[in-house]
Design goal:
20% strand, 43% helix, L-2-Hydroxyisocaproate Dehydrogenase, Chain A, domain 2, six-stranded parallel sheet
Length: 321
Amino acid sequence: MSDKVLNPARKVTIIGCGFVGSTIAYTLMIKGIFSKMVLIDADTQRAEGEAMDIAHGLLFSHPMEIVAGNYDDIKDSNMIIITAGANQKPGETRLDLVKKNAAIFASILPEIKKRNYQGIILVVANPVDILTKVAQKLSGLDEKHVFGSGTVLDTARLRYLLGQHLEIDSRSIHAFIIGEHGDSEIPVWSSANVAGVPLHQFCEMRGFFNHDEAMREIGESVKNSAYEIIKRKKATYYGIGMAVERICGAIMRDEKCILPVSTALHNDFGIDGVTMSMPAIVGSNGVEEIVPISLSYEENKKLTASATILKSTLADIGYKD
């Protein structure tokens, strides 16, 4: 395979046209990153309807071809974005949901592999870390070309809340959420900074001194953001739509920017055999390299615990290395 996986036609395929998939499609249309978009869904009429609805707004955006299709349309795509998956039902355990969505992926990935697809696969369906590992196993592609949206949105939420707390532009804040996209995620406070100034120092400059309490509250708010949104409006989709657009832009423009995507770890930070979020260089060839950010002893300990949870879940569904 060549060093670059991009197709000059700039084509994307989205598998799954629920709230998340259709919002991603709309966001990508608005931004004009791709020149062709194919929507695939088990409900073909849903895919057709979404393609029609979004295409009707092209006059106000960028020239683009948007169609509903099937797996035969994926072969020359630069990227495949997989959002297909079931939602957790009342009384259903997390493991039940994982097994159900892993089974859905076990039906999708062989179809992709059968077409000898050689582009990039971006997993967005949840639980994203587990499903990214499943996709890596079943796709037959280099792991660097199969990765998940990870904690890109969680990190955006962290920076947003810090910006609100400090009353500054969140784009000036450098901080990451790492590990699982879920309850065991870890805010990396030890290396967080604002325009190069250590976070604690900047907080004191702005009149905040109760660091431990503030970090705990902000970290919990980030972790519970999705729950709070779902409680109010039953689903989350705008934030992840914009996060995925950011990842797609990094790939299609070969930005080589650093994003906390869900990628395979092989003895990185002392962790092996799981897929989870760490800051990584993302460009036209996918995940180029994991960035060895500094972690405190406690952060490293929590990261190891997060990896253990993911390993246990993978073993429960039969994907243990």
